[in-house]
Design goal:
This protein is mainly alpha-helical and 129 residues long. The protein folds into two domains: 9-71, Orthogonal Bundle (Arc Repressor Mutant, subunit A), CATH 1.10.10; 90-128. It has helices at residues 9-22, 27-33, 42-54, 75-88, 92-104, 108-128; strands at 58-63, 66-71. A two-stranded antiparallel sheet has the order 1-2. α2 (27-33) packs across α3 (42-54).
């Protein structure tokens, strides 16, 4: 698994959350969709989008005089890879404890959905082999 570029700071976090929600967008579309307190100047948002694209978290495609930015991976893939990266540096006992604690915090409806998702992931993994 290649290195996962980190999201740094509140503005990058808010922009990536917005990008995952929108699916894609121009600087103006992203800026307009950000929570009010994060709507910096056009050039600030453009700079952050370009930095996220340079680091591989977004792709950018020229459309006319502007660019459209699109996430290169889903929010769930990003979070999963982030957790995997963090847990990779721990012992098996710590990994198991952390995962058990997360699992233990789920309610019964979440547990049912998780079991169904786990089955789908396992089936996809089996198809790849």
């Amino acid at each position: 698994m290649p290195d996962l570029p980190a999201i740094h700071g509140e503005l990058q976090t808010q922009i990536m959350s917005t990008m995952w929600r929108l699916g894609s967008g121009t600087v103006d579309e992203v800026r307009d969709a950000l929570p009010h307190r994060y709507r910096g100047a056009y050039t600030t948002i453009q700079t952050v989008l370009n930095r996220l694209a340079d680091r591989g978290l977004l792709s950018r495609e020229r459309q006319g005089r502007s660019y459209t930015y699109t996430p290169t991976l889903s929010e769930s893939d990003y979070l999963s890879r982030s957790i995997t990266h963090v847990l990779a540096g721990t012992s098996a006992a710590v990994r198991q404890t952390v995962l058990a604690q997360l699992y233990g915090q789920l309610d019964s409806s979440d547990l049912s959905e998780l079991a169904a998702l786990a089955d789908r992931v396992a089936a996809k993994r089996k198809q790849r082999k």
